[in-house]
Amino acid sequence: MTEECKKAEADAVEFANRAIQFDQQNTYNAAIYYYRVAAQALHSAYLLGSQVAGIKEKADEYISRAEALHKIKIQISQRKPEKNEHKLQLERAEFLLRQGLEEDEAGNEEEAIELYLQAAELCLKSRKLTQDKNLQVKLSKLAENSLDRAEALKKKRAATTQQNVPSPSAVSPPSLSSLNISEKSNQNQVLVNKRASSPIPLQQVSGKGTYSKEEIAVLQVTSIVNGREYVPFMPIDLKERFAYPLPFSDRDGKLTLSPKQKAVFKAWVRPEDFTSRPVVIELIDCFSLRQTIVSDCSFVASLAVSALYEKRFKKKIITSIIYPQNRAGDPVYNPCGKYMIKMHFNGVQRKVIIDDFLPMGVHGDLLCSYSSNRNELWISLLEKAYMKVMGGYDFPGSNSNIDLHALTGWIPDRISIDLSDPTFAKDKIFKTMVDKHNKGHVLITVATGELSSSEADRAGLVPTHAYALLDVKEVLGKRLCLLKNPWSHLRWKGRFSEHDTKNWTPELKEALRYDPRNAQMFDNGVFWIDYDSLLHFFSVIYLNWNPEMFKYTYCLHQ
Q1: What positions carry a catalytic annotation?
Q2: Cβ(459)–Cβ(494) below 8 Å
Q3: How many CA atoms lie within 13 A of 364 on its CB side?
Q4: Backbone dihedral region for residue 209 (phi beyond 0: left; psi -120 to 50: alpha; all else: beta)
Q5: Torsion angle of alpha carbons 480, 484, 489, 493, nearest 10°?
Q6: Is the link from the previous residue into 168 a cis peptide, with omega within 30 of 0?
Q7: Strands (E), 276-387
Q8: Which of 119-124's residues contact partners 24+ apart within 8 Å by CB, and which partners?
Q9: 90 in helix, strand or coil?
């Protein structure tokens, strides 16, 4: 048995265990998702020669259970998860305490004391309001622990003060509107924050050398985007505060909704309004993304290829930009509702602060992009941060070069597809795509051009629409690309589609670990298309190159 077969079997076991666990918890969206990917993994293992008894029957069983749960989910789609305000306050108090412990361990005693006291106050307030005895005990213990540590730190600070040892003062991140060049600065030039207690060294902003007067002037202009200021990301921003006794609300207010959203909008909701177990990330995966009525297909396609890269190469390129994080650098759910996203735009990394309010429609569905695992928030949070920079959900669209650079900082490149141009090196382009994609040197998306409605319907493609490229291979003389429609439905209908009975030979299906019959069972927007058809129906190939591999960008243009 090959290593690929063993891996497919192991994936199936992992996904099936998750599915059963979520099924038992009545967490329908997550259970449906994991039953389906477990079935896909079993089909892959079967095609690779797995000897597990009844493997095809087990895959069919998982698909049947997913369909049954989908029907149950529809029946209860109008119901809300039970919202227990006291439980939410306990979660916020625990988060305050954890943040206090981190500040405590880092030696930031003043911030730690404030967080401890706020945690204790929230616990005591909640204890008076609940009749749940077990919850009262938990709240009392948490308040006691918080107060004890706060008092210990106060005594320590008092003793330090008596010894005339000054304690470090906290420095808040500067706003570029209040930045000036210090007249007394030397070659180690600094930005001065009028609201801070000490100047911020310029090298902390740029990560290299110093800024000139001209560069600072440019920063002051380029930091204003759609009427809001986004300052360069600094090391001090890693100390951004995320814990609050009351739920956080963005001071910039709610994002502007698009006309399509407004037509079916019901309310702004927080994660606890639509899921009982919110998490930022359960399992990074490109297949779980679903675009809705926000016209940001290129951004969702960019998320898909970035998520696939993380899964394949075990390198964080998008999850690492979401804060708060735990000590392992993984983003964590914040019951206080505040998040910080680090993005590249206008030349430097910048921070974007958002709250966790999301738009909900009259039918109980989120009116933004989301994960098919309803517990996960990473897709919705990243989209919200980007839409905030772009001016709101009323977004006219972009292209994947711009979007991927904002997410990853990878170098944008593009190829216009023009088959009438005798210099268009389609063979060399395909060879390079295969080589660099498989090595993780590049992230690739493609986009269709203008198509007539009849042509688009026959092809199963969307005009002027971005698709994520998940794989590209040359197998048994066939040049094929695996694409994902960000809508998570509507697939290519031509050669090598799941309904093509002519081109899918047993040898090719085995080589690609692909079963068209399995694909026909549900439309997830993922499909194989031959390279010649892609060149015929698509107009642009977008590439974003890993900066570490920037030397390879010349390959497609020589």
Answers
A1: 297, 465, 485
A2: yes
A3: 13
A4: left
A5: -20
A6: no
A7: 289-290, 322-323, 338-345, 348-355, 358-361, 370-371
A8: 119/93, 119/94, 119/143, 119/146, 119/245, 120/146, 120/147, 120/150, 121/245, 122/89, 122/92, 122/93, 122/96, 122/245, 123/89, 123/90, 123/93
A9: helix
DSSP string for 183-236: TT--SS-EEEETTSSSPEEHHHHHSSS---HHHHHHHHHHTEETTEE-PBP-GG
Dist CA 73 CA 5 (whole Å) = 33
Helix, strand or coil, per DSSP, at residue 299? helix
Nearest-angstrom CA–CA distance, 426 and 534: 11
CB 356 within 8 A of CB 379: no
d(CA 389, CA 402): 13
Tokens of 355: 């709250």
Question: Letter for the amino acid at 66?
Answer: A
Output phi, psi for 66, to 5 deg: -65, -40
Query: Which residue, 267, 237, 272, 233, is CA-closest to 356?
Result: 272
Q: Are 461 and 428 in contact (CB under 8 A)?
A: no
Summarize the confidence of residues 436-465 as an average pLDDT.
Answer: 95
Secondary structure class of 254 (helix, strand, coil):
coil
- Separation of CA 212 from chain center: 35
Task: Calculate Rg over the CA atoms of the chain.
Answer: 26
Mean per-residue pLDDT over the chain, rounded: 84
pLDDT at residue 52, rounded to an integer: 84
Pairing of strands 466-475, 478-484: antiparallel
Count the neighbouring beta carbons within 10 Å of the beta carbon of residue 432.
20
Is residue 357 exposed (0-12), middle (13-18) or buried (19+ Cβ within 10 Å)?
buried
User: How many of the other CB atoms lie within 10 Å of CB of 154?
Assistant: 14
Contact 122, 89 (CB under 8 A): yes
Based on DSSP, count helices (H) and strands (E) in the chain, helices before strands. 17, 18
pTM (2 d.p.): 0.77
CA distances from 247 to 99, 123, 335, 336, 384 (A): 15, 15, 8, 5, 18
> Rounded to an integer, what distance in angstroms lies between the CA atom of residue 533 and that of residue 496?
10
Q: Which residues lie closer than 8 Å to 106 by C-beta, 6 or more apart?
A: none
**What integer pLDDT is reported at residue 163 of this predicted model?**
64
Query: What's the mean pLDDT in 406-432?
Result: 95
Q: What residue type is 56 in one-letter code?
A: K
Structural tokens at position 518: 């399995």
pLDDT level of residue 199 (50, 70, 90 thresholds)? very low
- Report the C-alpha gap between 237 and 506 in whole angstroms: 55
Predicted local distance difference test score (pLDDT) of residue 557:
46
For residue 418, give every residue at least 6 positions away whose Cβ sits within 8 Å of its Cβ, in sequence order, or none: 424
